[in-house]
Amino acid sequence: xxxxxxxxxxxxxxxxxxxxxxxxxxxxxxxxxxxxxxxxxxxxxxxxxxxxxxxxxxxxxxxxxxxxxxxxxxxxxxxxxxxxxxxxxxxxxxxxxxxxxxxxxxxxxxxxxxxxxxxxxxxxxxxxxxxxxxxxxxxxxxxxxxxxxxxxxxxxxxxxxxxxxx
Length: 166
Fold this sequence. Notes:
alpha+beta
């Protein structure tokens, strides 16, 4: 009878030793007395829709003295307006270099100290008497200058003789 009791004690002690070193469900085996972290199943990251970037559009006046660039809402691969766009910006070369800009909202802004002077080239020439339009902006080309306005009435005028922004 001693043999079966001794065998049971040995088997039980082996089982206890084996159980304490076996990994717990949901985590690797660890040191005794330390809680095991439960492994959570990771889900693949949700895909955020890619932002659609627009294409800038440029145009010039027949004189070559005024050139404009239109940036659609959301910006382009190389430029994003501060307010997210859309934005229309026109440069006048003579008699003094200036830039007039209309953004999404607010009054037109005229800058007389333009650090990145690059006027005037464009995809198309807007002849005198023609109208250019994109987004909320419409521009009127006349021999007396270029007037551009946003659908809410804010506008600017650029010509050799005058500059107006409202």
